């Protein structure tokens, strides 16, 4: 694998760890959700770290920030998917609490990261 700067970013590392946790949780969703909520949630979660990486490789600040903002928007998309999963009772209280903590931490760090981007 490439040794690129974005892999040293706390926000990217946190996003990758979040994906791992999310995959374990969505694996418990009903099988009929495999091509629906499970797939959509996982793709949006992957988009978080992927857009951080892509943005970090861009030369202009405007482009970098654009990709970082897309990344944060993907996090908001994941949050919506998890709200739906909660409503459908696919998540237990412990999972909801863990995910809520992770989402809020990642959102705050991403917002700070975007604000300070150079």
CATH architecture descriptor: Up-down Bundle
Strand content: under 5%
Low-confidence stretches: none
CATH third-tier fold name: de novo design (two linked rop proteins)
Largest sheet: none
Count the beta strands: 0
Task: Give the CA-based shape.
Answer: elongated
Question: Helix- and strand-based class?
Answer: mainly alpha
Taking the alpha carbons of the first and last residues, their distance comes to 25 Å
Order of helices and strands: HHHH
Distinctive features:
118 residues, mainly alpha, de novo design (two linked rop proteins), 0% strand
Brief overview, please?
This protein has 118 residues and is mainly alpha-helical. It has helices spanning 10-26, 34-56, 61-87, 93-116.
Describe the overall structure.
The structure is a single chain. The protein is an all-alpha fold and 118 residues long. The chain has a single domain (16-116), classed as de novo design (two linked rop proteins), CATH 1.20.1440. Helices cover 77% and strands 0% of the residues. 25% of the residues are buried. The model has no long low-confidence stretch (mean pLDDT 95).
């Amino acid at each position: 694998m490439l040794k690129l700067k974005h892999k040293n970013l706390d926000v990217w590392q946190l996003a990758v760890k979040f994906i791992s946790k999310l995959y374990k949780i969505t694996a418990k969703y009903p099988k009929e959700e495999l091509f629906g909520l499970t797939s959509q949630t996982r793709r949006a979660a992957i988009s978080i770290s992927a857009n951080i990486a892509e943005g970090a490789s861009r030369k202009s600040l405007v482009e970098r920030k654009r990709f970082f903002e897309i990344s944060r928007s993907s996090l908001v998309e994941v949050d919506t998917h998890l709200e739906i999963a909660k409503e459908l009772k696919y998540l237990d209280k412990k999972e909801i609490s863990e995910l809520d903590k992770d989402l809020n931490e990642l959102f705050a760090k991403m917002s700070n990261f975007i604000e300070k981007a150079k």
